[in-house]
């Protein structure tokens, strides 16, 4: 998991990056080493590409290595939601014309850079600790109620908070609350 300072540093480095592909790959390796002190492997979800969980400016620089900006527990939970409901789960849609047409143009529903004006200043999205998503064919209230009713199910083990009364998307995060039950909150 990245610290806020490390995320800021990565965003600064990405902003300074040139568009040369070779330099971008070297930059990604340098950022990994800077953030973690060594090159490391990154959890890769079974059902999501990196662009689906990071904004376009991050994916443009880091490509598939963009997963490093998203908490492994968020990535794992997105996969678990997909498997539990046995239906596609949508986060960002900006690289898919078909998804944009069907669901809208989303580009900041996973990790958000610290510089974005979207959401709260200390949003868990800006630490890679949250996602907004939709389970295709299942209404948000039903998804939320299923998670809250079955919160001891292994698929939901990392969810610590869910937005209540939001009907357009399911927001979950994996922040440390010190609680054993999922907390619901209003934004």
Folded structure, characterized:
By secondary structure, the chain is of the alpha+beta class. The protein has one domain: Muramoyl-pentapeptide Carboxypeptidase, domain 2, CATH 3.30.1380.10. Helices cover 36% and strands 10% of the residues. It has a 5-stranded mixed β-sheet with strand order 1-2-4-3-5. α1 runs antiparallel to α2 (21-36). The longest helix is centred in the N-terminal third of the chain and has 16 residues, at 21-36. The chain is globular, with a radius of gyration of 16 Å. The chain starts with a helix and ends with a strand. Mean pLDDT is 85; it is low at 17-24.
Outline the fold blueprint.
Layout: H1 4-16, H2 21-36, H3 56-62, H4 72-85, E1 89-90, H5 97-103, E2 130-135, H6 140-149, E3 161-163, E4 170-173, E5 183-185
Total DSSP E strands: 5
Strand order, main sheet: write it out. 1-2-4-3-5
Stretches where pLDDT falls below 50 for ≥5 residues? 17-24
| Number of domain modules | 1
Indicate the overall shape: globular
Fraction of helical residues: 25-40%
State the secondary-structure class: alpha+beta
Order of helices and strands: HHHHEHEHEEE
CATH architecture: 2-Layer Sandwich
Number of helices: 6
Calculate the terminal CA-CA distance, rounded to whole Å.
23 Å
Tell me about the largest β-sheet: 5 strands, mixed
**Rg over CA atoms:** 16 Å
Q: According to CATH, what is the topology?
A: Muramoyl-pentapeptide Carboxypeptidase, domain 2
């Amino acid at each position: 998991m990245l610290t806020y300072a490390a995320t800021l540093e990565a965003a600064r480095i990405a902003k300074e990056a040139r568009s040369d592909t070779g330099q971008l790959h070297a930059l990604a390796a340098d950022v990994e080493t800077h953030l973690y002190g060594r090159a490391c492997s990154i959890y890769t979800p079974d059902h999501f590409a990196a662009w689906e969980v990071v904004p376009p400016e991050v994916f443009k620089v880091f490509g598939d290595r963009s997963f490093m900006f998203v908490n492994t527990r968020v990535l794992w939970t997105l996969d678990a939601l997909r498997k539990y409901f046995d239906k596609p789960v949508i986060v960002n849609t900006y690289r898919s014309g078909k998804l944009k047409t069907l669901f809208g143009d989303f580009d900041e529903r996973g990790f958000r850079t610290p510089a974005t004006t979207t959401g709260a200043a200390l949003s868990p999205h800006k630490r890679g600790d949250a996602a907004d998503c939709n389970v295709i064919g299942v209404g948000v209230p039903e998804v939320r109620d299923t998670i809250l009713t079955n919160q001891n199910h292994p698929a939901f083990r990392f969810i610590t908070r869910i937005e209540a009364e939001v009907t357009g998307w399911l927001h979950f995060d994996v922040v440390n609350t010190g609680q054993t039950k999922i907390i619901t909150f209003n934004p």
